[in-house]
Amino acid sequence: MTTNCIALVVAAGRGTRFGGAMPKQYLPLAGKPVLRHSLETLTRHAGIDRVGVVFNPDDAALYDTAAAGLDLLPPVAGGAARQDSVRLGLESLVDLAPNRVLIHDAARPFLAASTIDDVMGALDQSPAAIPALPLLDTVKRGANGVITETLDRTNLWRAQTPQGFRYADILGAHRDAKGLDLPDDAAIAERAGMAVKLIAGSEANFKVTTEDDLREAEHRIAAGLGDIRTGQGFDVHAFGPGDHLFLCGVEIPHDHSLVGHSDADAGLHALTDAILGCIGAGDIGVHFPPSDPQWRGAPSHRFLSRAADLVRARGGVIAHVDVTIVCERPKVGPHRAAMVSRIAEILGLDQGRVSVKATTTERLGFTGRGEGLAAQAIATVRLPL
Ligand code: MG
Questions:
Q1: 375 C-alpha to center of ligand 1: Å?
Q2: N or C terminus: fewer CB in 10 A for the chain?
Q3: SS (H, E, C) 48-84
């Protein structure tokens, strides 16, 4: 059977122009990796049969997070340069033999369904089509900070993705161009003599390349999320016999454990309730009844992930979370950074949007007597208006 259209997302670059250790396509954007934004759009599109990603196997853990729960083809290992990665991605589709293929940059999160429609529509008449925008700024050539030439911008376009092709044609063109260093797939098609149709791109479909771009991307999303909610959560667990406990997703050696049906992580329980509170989705007990044996000893990150999924399902993002642990012991300070990191990882947030604090009750009350510990949390969620 011939598959009609497959989308291939190119995410193999290790580009770290941001200076960080994480390739930009995996950086968090509004609560999910940059890559996931376009994957969700492509997998939802009725005209696309399958979606696959070309990745760097060194990023397998990041990829798994970005792709979790999406119906994708097995990821394909890319090559040294973008052109190699695309060719390897195309070669991986030989058995599926799609009629058409759309090739998209992972770093363009704002792919609109209408752009996909337009590229696919253009492929009815043309062997290749790409979204592009006319160049409006005057274009200069310069050397050593001084202009050497002013170029004529007439008929100049800025190429975007997804770039659409007939599969057999672009596979052949890529094979022929192996070893060259061409900047995009349209250039490969042009070299093979294909007429590449220009369709209207959109400014929103920009490539997240710099930190400024990432901020701009956050602004765009936040501008559409004006319904700002706060929710709070509170939880207590008693100490019992044991030699370790879980707090904010971190295992801490201690002379007691915490007693509870799950792993008794009061920090994550309070935080889960705070997030559920933002969307009026009841409390942790509604979603994970203690009477249900499947949650016995369950790691509490599953509860927190579920709350974050519910926010995403509403089209919302988690803007900020703040957890306060109330206990005399264990000391939270030495574990604070690990807790912030773990919560950020579970929620898909930048660590700057996560706070963990600790206090005591001056030896008063049940926490003061060391009978148990308490946690409270507050979360801020932005939902579409
Ligand atoms: Mg609890």
A1: 9
A2: N
A3: CCEEEEEECHHHHHHHHHHHCCCCCCCCEECCCCHHH
- Where exactly are the structural domains of the chain? 5-223, 227-383
Q: What DSSP letter does each residue of 163-187 carry, written as one string?
A: EEEEHHHHHHHHHHTTT---SSHHH
Partners of 383 in the β-ladder: 227
Report d(CA 273, CA 269) in Å as an integer: 6
Give the Å distance between the CA of 210 and the centre of ligand 1: 41
Instruction: Give ion ligand 1 contacts, CB < 5 A.
Output: 235, 269
* Angstrom distances, CA of residue 74 to CA of 5, 67, 83, 168: 16, 10, 20, 21
Q: Which fold has domain 5-223?
A: Spore Coat Polysaccharide Biosynthesis Protein SpsA; Chain A (3.90.550)
**Neighbour-count burial of 124, counting CB atoms closer than 10 A to its CB (0-12 exposed, 13-18 middle, 19+ buried):** exposed
Tokens of 333: 């300070």
- DSSP for residue 262: S
Higher pLDDT, 320 or 20: 320
- Terminal-to-terminal C-alpha distance of the chain: 44
Report CA(32)–ligand 1 centroid distance (Å). 26
Say whether 360 sits in a helix, a strand or coil: coil
- CATH number for region 227-383: 3.30.1330.50
